[in-house]
Amino acid sequence: MLKKTIFILFLVLFTGNLNAEAKTYKMVFVPASEKGDESDYTNLISITEKLTGLNIDTIKVTDYNAAVEAMRAGRAHIAWYGGKTYVKAAEIANAEAFAAGVRPGEKDAGYYTYFVVKKDSALKEFKDVKGKILSLNTIGSTSGDLIPQVELSKINLSIKNKDHFEKVFYAGSHDACLLAVLNNQSDVCGMSSRNFEARLEDGTFKKEDVRIIHKSDRVPPPPLAYSKIIPKEDRDKIKKAVLEAHNHGQIGGYGGKMSHYMEVKDSDYNVLREVIELLNKNKS
């Protein structure tokens, strides 16, 4: 009788575990590309789910602030952030950077801001952008807003000074910023090198159509970050799975195809914190 009771209890517990629903976490995306950001992460998410036993659902938001607020409010648990946005999310939304994608053929996840003009443009040097029409990504973008402002400040130009540019506008994405140049809507675009390379690779434009008149210093990579409200056990599972994902299939990320993901930590973004602080001082 005792053996039968023990067997029944074991069966109930075993069946209960089989029927238990896997934990589900929400992953939020920021608008960096016109090409559909979730598609870049489909395989990575699928592999991560398989290796961790967790479910990951995706959410797309319209701007960078919304991505931060989603994590702050607990509606999102994992995020693909730009560097500047991550700094804000770490400050107010309990975010922690843990990984960044490395493009095929490269050893580092860092990237750059490019200032791009059409091939036949009269702009030959970076200083020639004064008085012209400038297109950027969107407010809050690291390589399409923050870093362009930093680079312009080095040649004593500011997007806030109406005498420095004929017009400055935010196109809404890195792709749209570039297309504004190609379609003669702006003279120069400040954009992510990753999106530039991705659109070159997929044939959106040809290399001979444009020129890069300025390249910034290295920008800390756009990280994957998770909320610290996720139990540490699950955070460790997610991090391990992402760093090993390339061993289980083709993966993508910010800017398209990735060879692998490398580990990053919060202190890697201190350089951006310093830049943000410097820009804020210059505004005051």
Characterise this structure:
The chain has 284 residues and is of the alpha/beta class. It has two domains: 23-108 and 220-283, D-Maltodextrin-Binding Protein, domain 2; 113-215, Periplasmic binding protein-like II (D-Maltodextrin-Binding Protein, domain 2), CATH 3.40.190.10. Helix content is 39%, strand content 22%. The protein is built from nine helices and 13 strands. It has helices at residues 2-19, 37-52, 64-72, 83-92, 142-153, 174-182, 193-201, 232-244, 270-283, and strands spanning 24-29, 55-60, 78-80, 95-102, 113-118, 133-136, 167-170, 188-192, 210-215, 224-227, 251-253, 256-258, 260-263. It has a six-stranded mixed β-sheet with strand order 2-1-3-10-4-13, sandwiched between helices. A five-stranded mixed β-sheet has the order 7-6-8-5-9. Helix 5 (142-153) links the parallel strand 6 and strand 7. Helix 2 (37-52) packs across helix 8. The longest helix has 18 residues, at 2-19. The protein is globular.
